[in-house]
Amino acid sequence: MKNRIHFLLVIILLGGISIAQNKTKSDDTTKTAQIRVKPIIYLLGGIVSSVGEKEMAFAKKYNIGFHDFGCLAPTNLEDYEELNAKTFDLLNIQFGTKWQEEIKPTTLGFSKWKAKNK
Predict the structure, then answer these.
(1) Which of 5, 31, 47, 98 has a Cα at 20 to 30 A from 118?
(2) What is the pLDDT of residue 1?
(3) Nearest partner of 13 among 93, 71, 68, judged by Cα
(4) How do residues 30-72 score in pLDDT, each as one tens digit?
(5) Of 71, 93, 89, which Cα lies nearest the Cα of 81?
(6) What single-letter DSSP state applies at residue 30?
(7) Residue 70, class by beta-carbon neighbours within 10 Å (0-12 exposed, 13-18 middle, 19+ buried)?
């Protein structure tokens, strides 16, 4: 499980995976296909999903995804807080600090990350 988390963390920090496929047509043109993996922010929900319209607009604007655990919180919550912290760092690098005003303050690990990065 930790290897998977480390792999995802590397993907998030690198901003995605690029896979190039060269296909030669009869006119000798080359096409390149790219696959991007979006960074994910993990949320603790409840009976009602914590991903609403505001979060969907945020995800679209900053090209990230959300994963809502719902009622069943994972046992390794600290690992997901660390992953969220890496995503927050990435958002700071890509967009400055403006996004911090738009994210839900109760997002998993956000208050700890913000206190640590003042």
Answers:
(1) 5
(2) 57
(3) 93
(4) 555 666 678 999 998 888 788 889 999 999 999 999 999 988 8
(5) 89
(6) B
(7) middle
Is the pLDDT reported for residue 90 higher than 60?
yes
Query: Which pTM does this prediction carry?
Result: 0.68
Taking the C-alpha atoms of residue 109 and residue 116, their distance in angstroms, rounded to an integer, is 11
Distance between CA atoms of residues 17 and 35, nearest Å: 6
Average pLDDT over residues 80-106: 95
Residue whose structure tokens are 């190039």: 20
Angle at 112 between CA 110 and CA 113, to 5 degrees: 65
Report how far residue 91's alpha carbon sits from residue 3's, in angstroms, rounded to the nearest whole number: 24
Distance (Å, whole) CA 21 – CA 33: 6
pLDDT at 23 over 50: no
The token duo for 63 is 């090209």
Instruction: Count CB neighbours of 74 within 10 A.
Output: 11
The Cα–Cα gap between 54 and 46 comes to 17
* pLDDT for 49: 82
